[in-house]
Every structure is written in structure tokens, then in C-alpha cells.
Design goal:
The chain is mainly β. The protein has 1 helix and 7 strands. The strands form 2 sheets. The chain has a 4-stranded antiparallel sheet with strand order 1-4-5-6, with no helix packed on it. A 3-stranded mixed sheet has the order 2-3-7, with no helix packed on it.
Length: about 110
């Protein structure tokens, strides 16, 4: 129908329909990030964390064995908290070239 409609401010129904905003999928964020919270328990002084299809072991120390922890992950930045006290146990950036993430950083040999 191409005749104007009195209730549509003298627009045709097709023109009124075309002017309305259309529903669609939400837009993707410009920089996709990986965020999550993971609960774990320290075992043999370390916890495990899967990132990007690889499994990493994060060293925390054997004195923490059995302690429940929270891992806050934002891309490669990881913060390990004591789940009962909220104390920060470790902050690190995952080194994707190493499966085991030691407590002390790697020293280059000179």
C-alpha cells in the first residue's frame, strides 16, 4: 500500500516500518577479553589453570597446601586470592611459553 496513513503522520505503512529501529544481535565489544573467576584448592604447592587450550601450573608454595583459593583471570593477568581471608597470595602474568609458572621470575643467563 502506498497511500499515506492518517495515524502515521501521513507516512505510508512501509515508510513507517522502515524508519523503526530493528532488533538484532548485540554488537561485539571492540576488544574481546577473557575474564573469569575460578575456585581451586592448593595441591602440592600449586594450582592449575587452563587458558587458551593449555594447562598451566601456578606455583604458590607447599605451606599453602589444602587452602582454598580464588583465581581472578583477565586475559593473561592472574591474581590468586585466599578464598577465606581475601589476602592476595600472588599476582602474575601467565608466560605462555612455560607450562609451570614459578614463584620467582626466570633469570636470563648472562
Amino acid at each position: 500500500m502506498n497511500r499515506p496513513h492518517g495515524a502515521l503522520d501521513r507516512r505510508t505503512p512501509a515508510a513507517a516500518y522502515a524508519a523503526r529501529p530493528k532488533a538484532g544481535p548485540p554488537s561485539e565489544p571492540p576488544h574481546r577479553t577473557h575474564n573469569r573467576v575460578r575456585t581451586d584448592k592448593v595441591n602440592n604447592g600449586k594450582i592449575t589453570l587452563r587458558h587458551g587450550g593449555a594447562l598451566y601450573s601456578i606455583g604458590l608454595g607447599r605451606h599453602l597446601n589444602g587452602r582454598p583459593v580464588l583465581a581472578l583471570v583477565h586475559d593473561l593477568e592472574t591474581t590468586i586470592l585466599d578464598a577465606t581471608t581475601g589476602e592476595t597470595l600472588r599476582e602474575l602474568t601467565l608466560d605462555s611459553t612455560r607450562q609451570y609458572q614459578p614463584q620467582t621470575p626466570r633469570n636470563p643467563r648472562t
